[in-house]
Write a structure and sequence with these properties.
Chain lengths: 351, 344
């Protein structure tokens, strides 16, 4: 199933269909039962050309895993990833490499994303150098051009990453990511490892680059305020599953899932004028090893019902370009209601 | 601070071999080590020039058991009248040769196995790590005794056994380092650009482990020199060579203690101590340069640990400690607080 129904006519750059990624858990004893971390479960999405697509969720909910599956770094356990219409994982080696050069990533941790033994020049030109077929002087010219674009000086070329602050390192990482003229850039929490004071600078830089190079972004964040400002579409994830998805405007103006509401309650600077219900959650995120049956969120949901414990919530379309996976919205069938599924759980259920 | 970040810090600190030597020179303890090692190497290389007498000459009946004097600065042996200073100078050749050649062979084998286990992973990894487990529990001394009986007493057998059993510690550390580097984001970025495995291995992974290899090699050299002296003392070394361990054995057998010939015992003892001390100095200072948070425990204790293959585990454990003065990550923005806290 493809979400973002409204955009069906526009060009999709990247599509994911029911993508799941499981990681094996290292077994404690040779013959103990094999367990799986269900990092991403049944996620479908569609990123259109030129847009910024946001993915939000708590730490550990599978955002980076999903991003890695998008760019072909992790092969999904099931489901398909289509980039420019081609199934990424059924391409031959050559085509796969070519497709991947069209996608690049800006990483969360600006400290481990640059090789400490490389100079800035070596770092930025590396993708060109690996692709080959470019003369040294052309590479130098290109690197200088990018250095300019991201706001660093020519003198910085022969310095090492350790000489730079987090924000500057992130600029170096951005320059490296765009040197091959990709069409698709995944930004995995590009500012969360940085000082708050440079957040805006880096975000503005990313937006300028998007404008001038006509890039498509997938923007991963746990900061809803950022997503609200820059994204056209978004997915809210919890424990590897999509909770709410659609146009960012609809999700922000009309959040329907209790989890989205809780996330919104937690940020103060969005639209204080409008009164909204505050949703507060109890407890911690359960482990993605053997996640809860039924709705993944039920243990922490203040509105959980009996049926939520056993019946998984499917994503349903509530308004154009807005999908929610919640039994409160989709409701239960009459037989299920007769079986008491719609009974609210006692308030202490989470404890 | 997580272990990976400390590892990147180690990769970062130190650059070329030249700058590494410069850093050692700037460190007071490191400078002592460098000077001593250079002297040791010079002595070994120039032994025929430096030695005042022929150390193999056992025919000096008249010169038996002389006290240190101008003619014989360190005296002579009681039994054969060999000049102790000359023996000491020649003995440095065996110590250095065995220590360094074993150290280098272990560095190669350990690095190769560690990189294979870490980078190739899968079956190669399980196989290598099982071999490591097995080698760790085989006692080497009885094995050396059996092998020297079978193959004859020679340093070749000793080196062989040292190398065959000594690579395991290095392989384990290199493996965990490779695992971290392999999953680092800069390797990911190179893979996205289409880099081959060979490129990633040679440009990103091996250079990142080089310091650990050098540090481990100097410490291994020190450890092996002690072990060699021990084996020679037990009479398991080459019977025709002159080595410090064998000098000690001869001194004991020749009744040096009985006749109060202290110089005969003291000289080889000091030789062993200085050689081991100088290599250890370098290794430990290197480790301080790479990983300033490593606990400043005593060098002897570290050497003991090292000989037992446990030392590098401790290096790694020290990396897990909290609080890192060097890398500050800036202030992370915490994820939105979701728990209701006291609102119930
Ligand atoms: N290579 C892996 N092997 C095993 N488990 C993994 C692997 N990568 C991720 N996981 C697990 O999958 C889950 C999702 O991880 P992921 O890194 O995708 O989360 P995230 O949403 O990006 O979190 P963060 O905000 O902290 O970056 C986590 O429980 C994590 O422990
Ligand atoms: Mg992440």
């Amino acid at each position: 199933m493809i979400v973002n129904g409204n955009n069906r006519h526009s060009d999709a750059l990247l599509e994911m269909e029911s993508v799941s990624v499981n990681f094996p858990v290292k077994r404690a004893y040779p013959f103990s039962k094999r367990q799986w971390i269900q990092a991403v479960t049944d996620v479908s999405l569609r990123v259109s050309m030129g847009e910024t697509f946001g993915i939000v969720g708590e730490s550990g909910c599978g955002k980076s895993t999903l991003a890695n599956a998008m760019i072909g770094m992790i092969r999904p356990t099931s489901g398909t990833v289509r980039f420019q219409g081609d199934d990424l994982f059924s391409l031959n080696r050559q085509a796969f490499k070519a497709a991947r050069r069209n996608m690049q990533m800006v990483f969360q941790d600006p400290f481990s994303s640059l090789n400490p033994r490389f100079t800035v020049y070596d770092i930025i030109r590396e993708p060109l150098y690996i692709r080959g077929g470019v003369s040294e002087s052309d590479m130098k010219g290109k690197v200088l051009e990018l250095l300019n674009l991201v706001g660093l000086d020519e003198e910085d070329l022969q310095r090492y990453p350790s000489d730079f602050s987090g924000g500057q390192r992130q600029r170096i990482g951005i320059a490296r990511a765009i040197i091959l003229n990709p069409s698709f850039l995944v930004c995995d929490e590009p500012v969360s490892g940085l000082d708050v004071s440079v957040h805006a600078q880096i975000l503005n830089l990313l937006m300028e680059i998007q404008q001038s190079l006509n890039l498509t972004y997938v923007f991963i964040s746990h900061n809803l305020a950022v997503v609200k400002n820059i994204c056209q579409h978004m997915h809210v994830m919890y424990l590897g599953k999509t909770m709410e998805a659609g146009a960012a405007d609809s999700v922000f103006s009309n959040p329907l899932h209790p989890y989205t509401k809780a996330l919104l309650s937690a940020i103060l600077d969005i639209d204080v004028s409008r009164p909204r219900e505050r949703v507060l959650l109890k407890g911690d995120t359960p482990s993605p090893i053997d996640p809860p049956s039924g709705c993944r969120f039920w243990q922490r949901c203040p509105f959980a019902m009996e049926g939520c414990k056993t019946i998984p919530a499917e994503l349903v379309n509530v308004e154009p370009d807005h999908h929610v996976a919640c039994h409160l919205i989709s409701g239960f069938s009459s037989e299920q209601k007769a079986a008491g599924f719609a009974q609210p759980l006692s308030p202490q259920h989470g404890e | 601070m997580s272990k990976p970040n400390v590892i990147f810090q180690i990769v970062r600190r130190g650059g070329s071999l030249f700058s590494l030597i410069k850093k050692l020179w700037q460190h007071p303890k490191g400078r002592v080590g460098l000077i001593l090692v250079s002297l040791l190497v010079l002595t070994a290389v120039l032994a025929p020039v430096l030695a005042p007498y022929d150390p193999y000459d056992v025919t000096q009946r008249a010169a038996k058991g002389l006290r240190p004097s101008l003619q014989h600065p360190l005296g002579t042996s009681i039994t054969t009248g060999q000049d102790i200073l000359s023996m000491l100078i020649y003995g440095s050749r065996v110590s250095l040769m065995i220590g360094v050649s074993t150290g280098i062979a272990i560095a190669f084998l350990g690095a190769l196995m560690g990189v294979m286990a870490g980078y190739i992973g899968g079956f190669a990894d399980s196989l290598i790590m099982r071999v490591v487990d097995v080698l760790l529990v085989i006692p080497t001394l009885p094995l050396i005794i059996v092998l020297t009986n079978l193959l004859g007493r020679s340093y070749f057998v000793i080196i062989l056994v040292f190398v065959a059993f000594g690579w395991t510690g290095l392989a384990r550390v290199i493996r965990s380092m490779v695992l971290v580097l392999k999953n680092s984001n800069y390797v990911k970025a190179a893979e996205l650009a289409g880099a081959s495995r060979w490129y990633i291995m040679t440009k990103h992974i091996l250079p990142g482990t080089s310091h650990l290899i050098i540090m481990n090699t100097t410490l291994t050299c020190a450890g092996i020199m002690v072990a060699e002296a021990g084996l020679s003392f037990l009479g398991l070394g080459d019977p025709t060579a002159i080595s410090w361990g064998k000098m000690l054995a001869e001194a004991q057998g020749g009744g040096a203690l009985l006749f109060g010939a202290w110089w005969w015992i003291l000289a080889p003892g000091a030789g062993i101590f200085l050689a081991v001390f100088s290599f250890m100095r370098i290794g430990i200072v290197m480790e301080e340069v790479f990983n300033p948070r490593m606990k400043a425990s005593s060098g002897i204790y570290k050497l003991f640990k090292h000989l037992n293959n446990r030392y590098l585990d401790e290096v790694f454990r020290s990396m897990d400690d909290e609080g890192d003065p060097v890398t500050s990550e800036g202030s992370d923005t915490p994820p939105p607080p979701l728990s209701g806290g006291g609102h119930d």
